[in-house]
């Protein structure tokens, strides 16, 4: 089963459980217009972000011995993100290790001390400083904010701000040059593991 198939099945299940008016708002948000993102060939600045346990991780350390795959995701509250990260853990991480590449996940969620059961760093870009520099962050619209609050997700508490990131995968080489950029304004869709391996 591809990641796309699994995500679509999950979306069908979740959507069926939602009140129609909320489902309509979230469906409209999936059709969000793309903005200008960082492009292949651009060199990005080094950054240092805290892990879930507070331990800082630098981009320079991630690319010290080979390329790094950076996965930007919305937060641990997002079921699509959790499914994607578990898939990457199972299908992508072993292949990256064979190729000498590192994997790290980044979200705007504040570090809360909860360490996900994943074999790669999960970093907190609170305030979306790194994501904003890559063109990945955006403010949550009023209708979506209201829908999320109705569903019990208060980004003000979780992220510190009503700002989200487009799910994205970036491959960065040892010189911090972007070699692959795949951004998904439709938050139900994500990058297939096979596409990331091919990019490497």
Automatic annotation (TrEMBL):
GO biological process: cell redox homeostasis; cellular response to oxidative stress
Catalysis performed (reactions): a hydroperoxide + [thioredoxin]-dithiol = an alcohol + [thioredoxin]-disulfide + H2O
Highest taxon above the source species: Bacteria
Domain Thioredoxin: 38-200
InterPro entries: AhpC/TSA, Peroxiredoxin_BCP/PrxQ, Thioredoxin-like_sf, Thioredoxin_domain
A GO molecular-function descriptor: thioredoxin peroxidase activity
Pfam families: AhpC-TSA (PF00578)
GO cellular component, one term: cytoplasm
UniProt keyword Cytoplasm present: no
EC numbers, comma separated: 1.11.1.24
Keyword annotations of the record: Antioxidant, Disulfide bond, Oxidoreductase, Peroxidase, Redox-active center
Protein family: Belongs to the peroxiredoxin family. BCP/PrxQ subfamily.
UniProt function note: Thiol-specific peroxidase that catalyzes the reduction of hydrogen peroxide and organic hydroperoxides to water and alcohols, respectively. Plays a role in cell protection against oxidative stress by detoxifying peroxides and as sensor of hydrogen peroxide-mediated signaling events.
Protein's recorded name: thioredoxin-dependent peroxiredoxin
Organism the protein comes from: Amycolatopsis eburnea
